Amino acid sequence: MLSNESIVFSAKNVSKTFGAGKNQVTAVNDVSFDIYDGEIISIVGGSGCGKSVLAKIMLGLYPASKGVFLYNGRKISNLKRHWGEVQSVFQDPFSCFNQFFTIRSQLEDAFNIFKKKPSKEEIKRRVDEGLLAVNVTPKDIEGKYSFELSGGQMQRMLLARIFALRPKVLIADEPTSMVDACVRANILDYLMKLKKELHMTIVFVTHDIGLANYVSDRIFIMHEGKIVNAGTPEEVLDKTEEAHTLKLLDDIPEVHKEEWIKNSHRAKNKKVS
Amino acid sequence: MSKSIFEVENLSLHYLGRFGDKTHAVTDVSFKMKQGEILGIAGESGCGKSTLVSGLMGMCIPPLYPTSGDVRVAGESLMNRTVEDIRANVLAQKVSMIPQGAFNALNPVRKIKDIAADVIAAHQSSGVHMNAQEIYQRLRTRFDLFGMDTDRVLNSFPIQLTAGERQRSVIGISTLLNPQMVIADEPTSALDVSTQKEVISMIFDLLDKGVFSTMIFITHELPLLYHVADNIAIMYAGEFVEMGTAEQVVKDPRHPYTKALMGAMLSTEKAQRTRKPVAIEGAPPSLDKPIIGCRFADRCSIARPECKKNKQNLRIVAGREVRCDYAE
Ligand SMILES: Nc1ncnc2c1ncn2[C@@H]1O[C@H](COP(=O)(O)OP(=O)(O)OP(=O)(O)O)[C@@H](O)[C@H]1O
Ligand SMILES: Nc1ncnc2c1ncn2[C@@H]1O[C@H](COP(=O)(O)OP(=O)(O)OP(=O)(O)O)[C@@H](O)[C@H]1O
Ligand code: SF4
Ligand SMILES: [Mg+2]
Ligand SMILES: [Mg+2]
């Protein structure tokens, strides 16, 4: 049974607002949940629904404006210590690498966050492993800088870093938005492997409910700052009348949906021809 | 047979590195498009899609250089012309380009209507003459056409708009001069599924209303292309490896890479939900040196020793072109 000790993140009536008065934005609006050790949780919702802000609260980047947010039963106070255990992959891959150093040296320097750094050989081996996990041959990025890679390749470098560092908790914000299906399947499989072998707790942020269904133990659907639906993938995808969830399902351009876009001559003509 | 309005012949492009090294990002791409056709190009990150777009526009800006080949719009070659010439005489009027991530790169201190005016002004020298009033009028009519909240959007700064509104504005502005064709590089990849659908609906609207009729649509999402494109080309490590109708390529793929892509797809359809997507191991080859044999050989499940030795040419298999001697 899940005990209190195994709660990694706990949110009680957490809100986050930006600005004041007329310009006030409530990005996260009164959410409550517990996330357990070794779970993969997906946070799913459309653009601007508050996914990234919630992810940043988990990283300690924003304090909650209201409510109580705890990591391992305590408020997040020491950011350096927090980041030694909770690592992230963020949406914009380019902002995360410095263009003046080679990618390789930055992947190796990432180990500086640890008090006890592994040996040089161990670091090299783990960086190689991380690169291979995202389908990149280590030799191919030797001596390369971030500006020489495409957006999707950069996104893979961020994931390679996580795979090398192996934190206790991973917050992955849209880590597959720029890669094709094969690489995506690989990354998702790797996330599940991290959970299984290293017992990593993973918070996976995405707007694609299909991806969430595949990797998660539980899914939180967000809309306008609120969690409007939560449960196991079956509960969320099947036993639901919840309108926002249905729309998210409906809008994925899958091949079996012959009428993905309705009322367009273009869509109709295409079907006929 | 109607005439081709866009022809690409054996186009190859390379980046020149700091030490004189070359990356052969695009190799021997050829295709023709008819008026009214939508061609989708799909392939994994780094396979050369954005590089190809630069080449298709004749916009090779160092360190990118054309290696060989030709691109013609309505018979007029775009190769060996200056970037200024292309900007003034081709862009926006004949071919309009929507670059990857453009909607996130709009000048933050200009309102949408001013950004539009800047774009039109850039073409004043080449016979497009409109004063501010005319431009604004044309913008209004166009934005009304696709059901935008016109006044609010035109008078907003980019940051005040949603990602969907920004991208729809970019497409609206890019097609204001009624170009013969549009090349869109991942116009919806950075958007959520619902916003993506909004943007595609708008593109269909513009097509239905005849604002433009021919388009190249680039993405790494193959299922999306099934809904958008008439024909699809699959790109791998700089080459086209399969080219056919959307129906052929998506529903009945023949090249081992295309098959692998489809096999890696996830689905929310009930019966498909628990099917495990099959990822392919390994990575594409380095493009630093010319490659003779099949570029997919290291990852192909049916590869044979000959595959790496023999040059693979496009050949007809089941009514479409496939670059693999052993596909059937
Ligand atoms: N630093 C900030 N200052 C003011 N408002 C902010 C800030 N960060 C986020 N917001 C607002 O909070 C809301 C939620 O933003 P958030 O980035 O969490 O959305 P998201 O769900 O991650 O969307 P996307 O899918 O587009 O990444 C938005 O309305 C956004 O404009
Ligand atoms: N300025 C550059 N110098 C050297 N190589 C480059 C440069 N820009 C891109 N490349 C290389 O060219 C290849 C093709 O890159 P390109 O950006 O065209 O890929 P893409 O298919 O558009 O990828 P994505 O889906 O991630 O946008 C990649 O291997 C990339 O590393
Ligand atoms: S040529 Fe050989 S390695 Fe290449 S795709 Fe065909 S079977 Fe596979
Ligand atoms: Mg976000
Ligand atoms: Mg690109």
Can you walk through the features of this model?
- The complex is a heterodimer of chains A (273) and B (328).
- Chain A has 273 residues and is an alpha/beta fold.
- Chain A has a single domain, classed as Rossmann fold, CATH 3.40.50.
- Chain A contains 11 helices and 9 strands.
- Chain A has helices spanning 51-58, 79-85, 103-109, 120-133, 138-141, 151-165, 181-198, 209-215, 233-237, 243-250, 265-272; strands at 7-18, 25-36, 40-44, 66-71, 86-89, 169-173, 201-206, 218-223, 226-231.
- A 6-stranded mixed sheet of chain A has the order 5-6-7-3-8-9, sandwiched between helices.
- In chain A, helix 7 (181-198) links the parallel strand 6 (169-173) and strand 7 (201-206).
- In chain A, helix 4 (120-133) crosses helix 6.
- The longest helix of chain A is centred in the last third of the chain and has 18 residues, at 181-198.
- Chain A is globular, with a radius of gyration of 20 Å.
- The model of chain A has no long low-confidence stretch (mean pLDDT 88).
- With 328 residues, chain B is of the alpha/beta class.
- Chain B has one domain (4-94, 179-322): Rossmann fold, CATH 3.40.50.300.
- Helices cover 30% and strands 23% of the residues of chain B.
- In chain B, the strands form 2 sheets. An 8-stranded mixed sheet of chain B has the order 6-7-8-3-9-10-12-11, with helices on both faces. In chain B, strands 2-1-4-5 form a 4-stranded antiparallel sheet, with helices on one face.
- In chain B, a hairpin with a 2-residue loop joins strand 11 (315-317) and strand 12.
- In chain B, 48% of the residues are buried.
- The mean pLDDT of chain B is 91.
- The chains are: A alpha/beta (273), B alpha/beta (328).
- Chains A and B meet through helix 6, helix 7, helix 8, helix 10 and helix 11 of A and helix 7, helix 8, helix 9 and helix 10 of B.
Write the layout of secondary structure elements.
The complex is a heterodimer of chains A (273) and B (328).
Chain A: E1 7-18, E2 25-36, E3 40-44, H1 51-58, E4 66-71, H2 79-85, E5 86-89, H3 103-109, H4 120-133, H5 138-141, H6 151-165, E6 169-173, H7 181-198, E7 201-206, H8 209-215, E8 218-223, E9 226-231, H9 233-237, H10 243-250, H11 265-272
Parallel strand pairs in A: 3-7, 3-8, 5-6, 6-7
Antiparallel strand pairs in A: 1-2, 1-4, 8-9
Chain B: E1 4-16, E2 22-34, E3 38-42, H1 49-56, E4 64-73, E5 76-77, H2 83-89, E6 95-98, H3 112-121, H4 132-145, H5 150-154, H6 163-174, E7 181-185, H7 193-208, E8 214-219, H8 222-228, E9 231-236, E10 239-245, H9 246-251, H10 256-263, H11 305-309, E11 315-317, E12 320-322
Parallel strand pairs in B: 3-8, 3-9, 6-7, 7-8
Antiparallel strand pairs in B: 1-2, 1-4, 4-5, 9-10, 10-12, 11-12
